[in-house]
Amino acid sequence: MKCPRCQGFVIHDQIWSSTDNLRTLPILRCLNCGETIEDGIIRNRHKPELVNSLTAAKSG
Ligand SMILES: [Zn+2]
Questions:
Q1: Distance from the CA of 45 to the center of ligand 1, in angstroms?
Q2: 13, 27, 35, 45: which has the highest count of C-beta atoms within 10 A?
Q3: For residue 20, how far is its CA from the centre of ligand 1 (angstroms)?
Q4: Is residue 28 a contact partner of residue 12, using CB atoms and an 8 Å limit?
């Protein structure tokens, strides 16, 4: 996993939730620029692009 901003190395970290102070949220933190990425967002981006291959197979 690389930082989307600077392609730097990111590590697993956690932050305190802004809505619930008793909880922490898993995040990724860039060691290079300090960018923080919420884990939920990352999972959304990891969806395989099956739609494209299915659409391509149908065409024709
Ligand atoms: Zn970065």
A1: 17
A2: 27
A3: 27
A4: yes
Q: What pLDDT was estimated at residue 19?
A: 81
How far CA 54 is from CA of 46, 47, 49, 51, in Å, comes to: 18, 15, 9, 5
pLDDT band at 1 (very low <50, low <70, confident <90, very high): confident
Domain count, the chain: 1
- Residue 44 forms part of a structural domain: yes
Here the tokens at position 25 are: 């949220």
Flag whether 16 is in a domain: yes
**Dist. CA 47 → ligand 1 center (Å):** 22
**pLDDT one-digit tens code per residue, 15-46:** 888 787 788 888 999 999 999 988 766 566 55
Is 43 a member of any domain? yes
